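Schema walkthrough. Field components (list of strings):
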Amino acid sequence: MKKHYNGYLIAGLIISGIIIIMTIIGMFWTPYSPTAMSGAAKLQAPSLAHLFGTDNFGRDIFSRVLKGAGTTLTIAVATVAIGAFFGTLIGANTGYFGGIVDDILMRLNDAVTAFPSILLALLIISLTGTGKKYNVILALGIVFIPSFARLMRTTYASYRNANYIISARLMGAGSGRIMMIHILPNTVRVLLPALTIGFNNAVLAEASMSFLGIGVAPPDASLGYMLSDAQGMFSVAPWYAVCTGLVIILLVFGVGLIGAGMQKQGSGVN
Amino acid sequence: MSGEINIMPDLNEGSLLEAVTGQSPVTSENATGADSIDEQKLVLEVKHVSGGYHTGGPFKRMQKYKEVIHDVDFVVKQREILGLVGESGTGKTTLTRMIFGTVKPEKGEIIHYTKRPQIIFQDPYSSLNPAYNVEWSIEEPLRVFGKYDEAERKERVRRVVKQVGLPEEILTAKPAELSGGQRQRVSIAAALIRRPRFIIADEPVSALDVTIQAQILELIANLRNELDLSFLFISHDLNVVYQLCDRVMVMKRGRIVEQGTIDEVYNHPKEEYTKQLLAAAE
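Field assembly_structure (string):
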């Protein structure tokens, strides 16, 4: 077979790879302590000493971005994992069996979707309490279930009457085996791009929640929280908002490219 | 298979067949129903069966019953290839499902004298799981059956691949890398792996071009001779049926309008419908 280079995939992997590596480094080492304040170095513009400059407490923004990206990534990955796991579970069962279970679960799904997702997340946060990372993950995770459920339902329904699935049923394979072993590997082509899109939405959702003040709270920092912090001093320290925003954009852009690349790859094979 | 029925309950070995036929099917892998092959003995008996399917909703009273099969009556003998011809929409698929027990007959009785039959589908492009290689697809029926260890399974896979005339290298290939004829051979191998006595072939060659058709037909004829298999061979192509089958049934709108040996039906057709079909095939 001829080798095709998938530009989207390669560019996406490089961009998000750099950010992920930086984030992992940031978990163990940062140039300055992300919480160390310095009265002498308030609101400094980017320089060799402070790559992204400093904020109004004299904290090194680059160090805080490294740390904050870790929080954001953790929340995004956990959110997508919850959404994809439960969404697949629900979607597989409704799509495969159809019938009355499908009707009930999908109408419930519609009810959840009918809420604006940020409002639903707000509701869950207000029930569980603000400022905790795990509550943000829980809230966003629940918000993300319906879209995965709908996607997987459609996919499973399309495989339900494929000849090889009918064969599997006739040979006596159980429904669980058919769903997990016979159908699931075939859904990867749909699921992987959806995971990347979900990841991006999660990053942005976390950022907007922190921006609204219902996400993570100090001393935890996330990119969204820092962005909301930065807007107050945009006129005196524009680099704060620009640098933080740039990291979010690059992260989302990189992962988005991976998703587009995978979709392209998938359509190329078949 | 067309999507006319969406209710396909799971078939657990035994339970549903028992419910349909009123007798326990033979479940042992090596049981033949009889040790010696007797060409008068039966593998399948379909006794005055009528039936169809329910459509409409989740509850009984919301459903409508549509009868598709009307008073169908035939037998399949050991080591016989029985052809079933008829245009599409005539109920061949529903009849197949009844034989497998996924659709219950409303009237009449279906008796299996052997263990579970196997099926070969028309479209070789959708009868193999694209996510797995050939070896997995052939081995899966044995894995599901669960009575054989890994070494035994692999050994049987190798043997059956040889029987259908494929090289062993093909085991690692994905379905997308195979030709239509190769895929159909793989489907046949997967059907043979549990050593059935009776196979239903639902238009197995109509998606293939003529030279490949001839090879697959030859393979089916050889398998019948070597393994003493019986086939119910469903087709709309009368020429193919003429080449391969011993007896033939003509189906029209859910009824069997004529059945007999190839000579009887092709050379002395009694029904007007059969004559039309034969005229159209020439």
